[in-house]
Amino acid sequence: EEKWRLEHARMHVKHKGHEAMHAEMVLILIVTLVIAQLVLVQWKQRHPKSYNLVTLFQMWVVPLYFTTKLHWWRFLVTWFIFSVVTAYVTYRATRKHLECTTPRLVYKWFLLLYKISYATGIVGYTVVMFTLFGINLIFRIKPEDAMDFGVSLLFYGLYYGVLGRDFAEMCADVMASTVGFYSASGMPTKHLSDSICAVCGQPILVDVSDEGIIENTYRLSCSHVFHEFCIRGWCIVGKKQICPYCKEKVDLKRMFSNPWERPHVMYGQLLDWLRYLVAWQPVIIGLVQGINYILGLE
Q1: Are the C-beta atoms of 164 and 114 separated by less than 8 Å?
Q2: Contact, 244 vs 200, CB < 8 A?
Q3: What is the spatial distance between Cα 184 and Cα 182, in angstroms, rounded to a whole number?
Q4: How far apart are CA 241 and CA 229, in angstroms?
Q5: What whole-number distance in Å separates Cα of residue 252 and Cα of residue 261?
Q6: What is the pLDDT of residues 10-19, one digit of tens each?
Q7: DSSP 214
Q8: Distance between CA atoms of 78 and 57, rounded to whole angstroms?
Q9: Cα maximum dimension of the chain
């Protein structure tokens, strides 16, 4: 405690008389944040495709730089495994000749990743709350160890949740466009038959004599019918809230009547909000530090 007081006193001495400089630095931070936010909003509205691709790349690379610098090997191992599997799944999803099993493979992988990240985030948050209330002391666990464990789990859950959902959205767009019953802008290239699922392009009902999987179907309010797994993957994993064919808005509350599934929708919205903090906040802070360096501010 005495050492901390001495360091605090040295800091006061070092920055004594620099109040005007500090005020200028705070002003630069606020102005940069406001301008950056306006630029990002305009970019997202005018060129959403390039914005999403750059944001995805930022989220993938920026944490890698900091964790490599800090030697966080556990994160680097999980990042490598995630990157290898996701690269393979993305490669399958972006082929011009889309295999009939690919949409299901893509949605299965990203749904699994989504559930794991959701559970990891919840456990991390619970550990942090228990530590704040001192419950860790019952198990004789040091507060700093419990807090480090909880924050680490929370970071893993949120980071891979954000990254996985953005890769899933990109794959969902590409696959649906390849199948031909969906177009992000304009009319679909194919007419949708009542017997075909617009998400995977396969028959909704399988004849007894044919090979295939018998599964539940789901009819949207626009009367279009899909495989239940496909439309859930499209809405939850692919972040789409419209019909894959006619683009009518989907009522998610009606689709997810089970109360245990609703938190997944809320969690997805939380991840969308956190994307800005993960991808762009380090870049903006770096920009502020660069401006301060150029102006000779410390």
Answers
A1: yes
A2: no
A3: 7
A4: 15
A5: 10
A6: 665 555 556 6
A7: -
A8: 17
A9: 86
* φ, ψ at 32 (rounded to 5°): -65, -45
| Close Cβ partners of 295 (under 8 Å, ≥ 6 residues apart) | 24, 28
Contact between residue 225 and residue 257 where contact means Cβ atoms under 8 Å apart: no
User: Can you give the pTM of this predicted structure?
Assistant: 0.70
Q: Which one-letter amino acid corresponds to residue 71?
A: H
Q: Which amino acid is at 97?
A: H
Q: For residue 70, what are its two tokens?
A: 């800090």
Q: Return the CA Rg of the chain.
A: 24
- 3-state class (DSSP) for residue 208: coil
To the nearest 10 degrees (0 to 180), the angle between helices 262-279 and 102-132 is 80
Please answer whether residues 109 and 167 qualify as being in contact, where contact means their C-beta atoms are separated by less than 8 angstroms: no
Q: What is the DSSP letter of 69?
A: H
The pLDDT assigned to 11 comes to: 61
Q: Is the pLDDT of residue 281 over 80?
A: no
Distances (CA, A) of 140 to 126, 130, 137, 146: 17, 13, 5, 10
**Alpha carbon distance 124, 126 (integer Å):** 5
Structure tokens of 37?
A: 């936010």
CB 114 within 8 A of CB 237: yes
Q: Return the amino acid letter for 215.
A: E
- In which element (H, E) is residue 218 found? strand 217-219
Highest mean pLDDT (candidates 55-59, 104-108, 122-126):
122-126
Q: Could you give the 3-state DSSP secondary structure of residue 278?
A: helix
Place of tokens 């490599």: 68
